[in-house]
Every structure is written in C-alpha cells, then in structure tokens.
Write a sequence for this structure.
C-alpha cells in the first residue's frame, strides 16, 4: 500500500497558482465600511419609509380627509349661526369622524398585518432582530401620522365653520379641546387596531374584530336594557361606546366633555399594546 504524496497547504497552493495572492493580515478581518450601532431612530426611519411608500396609506388617509372635511363642510353649510350657541365650531367634523374612524382603524391594522401577509416581516426582523424596537417604531410613526391628520382635519373644519358662522347669534365657544381630544381618540382607535393586527396577524380577521369592538357596544345596549339584570351594563356600554364618546367630545352632551371616555380608551389600548409586545417575543414569525 503506497502512501499518497503530501498535499500542499492552502496558502502555499494559492501562492503557487497566484503569485500575487496575499493572505489576510493577522487573525481577524476588519471591514472598511463603518459599522454604526443601531438605535430606535433607525427603526423610526424605516417605518416612516414603509408607511409613506404603500398605497394603502394614501387611500385610507385620502378617504378619511374626504369624509371629515367633505362631511364637515356639508354639515356646516346646512346649519345656521344660531346652531353654534351651544355647540363648538368643530361639531360638523363629528359627522365625518363617525365613518372616518374606520379608515384609521383599517390603516392601523394594515401597518402590521400586511407585513405578516406578504412575509416581509421576516426581512424586517432579520434586519432588526430587536422585535420590541420595530413594534415600538410602528406605534410611534403611525400614531404621529394619525394624530396630525385627524387633529389637522378637525382644526380645519373648525376654522372654516367659524368663518362661515361668525355672526352675532353664534356663541363662539372654546373648541381647542375638541381638536386635541377628537384627534387623540380616533388615533388611539388606530393604535388599538395596530395592536390587534399584530396579535392576530391577519388583515381581514383583525379588521373584523375591530369593527366588532367599535360597533357592537353601540348596538348591544338596545337589547341589554330590556332586562333589569343587564340594564346597568347596557347603560355603561351606551355611555362609553365610540359613537357616544365622540359625541361627548364634540359637545353634543352638556353633562360630559368625553374625558372619561378618552381615558378608558387609553387604558384599553395600553393593555392591547402590552399583550401584543408579549406575544411578539413568544411567537415565531
């Protein structure tokens, strides 16, 4: 049995085949490209690029503006100066928000669920393994966009209505609070939809669930208040549902300004966001 001749070392073989070959200096390699430690700002920039690049954002926000501004101006044109003795000038925006809130809820769901549907969430988490950072950036970017658009549209309706009905019969009530609380309320509904979309990971299912959360509390009180045992529950549900909450915020109820309704939504949204964060770390993509 003959012993095979010894093979040359890889470096020696490379030097024989390529005389100009040069081995890597030392035992480690340092990239000439500067490596920057990632932070939340990078995730925010990434999510901003995503939300402004997809067509769903333009469609949902465009329809939202059409409903709030168009509906508000239509209602304002049908009213008189006397109408605003007891109502703020932003009240016409309430009519548009009744339907416009569905647009923000839908957009909030799509911000997360669409990535799971297309599989792009794998690329996102590969580029940024810190899942909590990605999800936090989604919430911050979406809330900022939703609040600016909603509060800005309510403000514009208020300014246009005040210019149309600034006669002596109008009381010129303070309406700055309705801009902030109205924009905050519908934006929180969108964040709630974002959290539900992250937990369910299915666009149609999450949108259906959010429609149930918004619409059922407005319908069930009619049946709950038939029985004495469920009357109290029905009255509370009627007081805190989304439609009545917006009505209180925009001055349709003299007994309340909608503060407790906003705080309730803050608590529900915070609980949903915490649940979404917990499931995000426990489940695979």
């Amino acid at each position: 049995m003959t012993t095979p001749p010894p093979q040359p070392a890889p470096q020696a073989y490379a030097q024989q085949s390529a005389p100009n070959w040069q081995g890597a200096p030392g035992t480690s390699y340092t990239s000439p490209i500067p490596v920057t430690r990632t932070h939340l700002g990078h995730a925010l920039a990434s999510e901003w690029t995503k939300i402004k690049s997809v067509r769903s954002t333009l469609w949902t926000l465009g329809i939202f503006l059409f409903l709030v501004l168009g509906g508000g101006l239509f209602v304002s044109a049908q009213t008189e100066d006397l109408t605003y003795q007891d109502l703020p000038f932003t009240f016409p925006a309430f009519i548009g928000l009744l339907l416009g809130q569905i647009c923000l809820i839908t957009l909030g769901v799509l911000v997360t669920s669409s990535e799971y549907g297309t599989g792009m969430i794998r690329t996102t988490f590969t580029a940024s393994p810190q899942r909590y950072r990605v999800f936090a950036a989604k919430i911050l970017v979406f809330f900022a966009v939703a609040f600016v658009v909603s509060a800005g549209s309510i403000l514009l309706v208020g300014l246009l209505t005040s210019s149309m009905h600034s006669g002596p019969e109008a009381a010129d009530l303070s309406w700055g609070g309705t801009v902030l609380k109205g924009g905050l309320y519908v934006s929180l509904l969108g964040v709630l939809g974002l959290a539900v979309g992250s937990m369910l990971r299915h666009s149609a299912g999450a949108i259906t669930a959010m429609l149930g959360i918004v619409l059922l509390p407005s319908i069930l009180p009619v049946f709950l208040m038939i029985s004495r045992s469920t009357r109290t529950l029905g009255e509370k549900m009627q007081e805190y549902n989304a439609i009545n909450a917006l009505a209180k915020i925009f001055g349709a109820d003299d007994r309340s300004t909608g503060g407790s309704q906003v705080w309730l939504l803050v608590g529900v949204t915070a609980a949903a966001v915490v649940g979404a964060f917990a499931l995000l770390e426990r489940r695979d993509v």
